[in-house]
Amino acid sequence: MTATADTVVPPPTAMPPPMPPTTIHSAPKVAVPQIFSQSVPTFIVKQPQMPKPYSGVSSYQSFKEHFERICRVNAWTTTEDKVQNLTLALEGPAAEILTDVNEASPSAYDEIWTLLARRFGQTDAPRDAMRRFNNRRQTDNESIPEYAQAPVCYIERPGLLLPHARETLT
């Protein structure tokens, strides 16, 4: 050992040999007091799901079902929340119906859906009627005149026009 007046320096020691690359190093274990591990709260932040925009091009009924699912997921239970988020989801021609709605009214939510149904509710009706017409089969207890008359109800609904359907039946 070499000694000076101010410091004591130990003699040089041999360095341990390097560890081979296959040696697995274990991480040091840190003991956390039990009081800290139990008192740390865990926060889960739930992001609200936003409804798809609706312009009236797609199915009104499909949008209504989608919007009602979003309301349940986001826990929008008050009429005010539903009206606010429904009006934000409407765009283009669908948003134009809002000019006739008082959004502060307690019945605003139902009024919006009524106006949307009136304006866009028939977009799927011709396709649905044609599908029902094409899939129609005579039941066991149905007479031939009853079976022949049934497709007429698909055609004569108010506001429903099926191209070439009347000519086919007459």
Describe this structure in words.
It is a single chain. The protein has a two-stranded antiparallel ribbon with strand order 1-2. Residues 157-170 have low confidence and may be disordered. Among the domains are: 60-120; 125-169, no CATH class. The chain is mostly helical and 170 residues long. It is built from seven helices and two strands; from the N terminus they run E-E-H-H-H-H-H-H-H. The longest helix has 15 residues, at 60-74. The N and C termini lie far apart (120 Å). It is elongated, with a radius of gyration of 36 Å. 43% of the residues lie in helices and 2% in strands. A hairpin with a 4-residue loop joins strand 1 and strand 2.
Biggest pleated-sheet summary: 2 strands, antiparallel
Roughly what percent helix?
Answer: 40-55%
Tally of strands: 2
Query: Shape, please?
Result: elongated
Question: Over the alpha carbons, how many angstroms does the gyration radius reach?
Answer: 36 Å
Order of helices and strands: EEHHHHHHH
* Widest beta sheet: strand line-up: 1-2
What's the tally of helices? 7
Question: Helices and strands: which structural class?
Answer: mainly alpha
Distance between the termini: 120 Å
Residue stretches low in confidence (pLDDT < 50, at least 5 long) are: 157-170
Average pLDDT across residues? 76
Portion of residues in beta strands equals under 5%
Question: How would you summarize the topology of this molecule?
Answer:
Blueprint: E1 2-3, E2 8-9, H1 34-39, H2 60-74, H3 79-89, H4 108-120, H5 125-135, H6 144-155, H7 165-169
Antiparallel strand pairs: 1-2
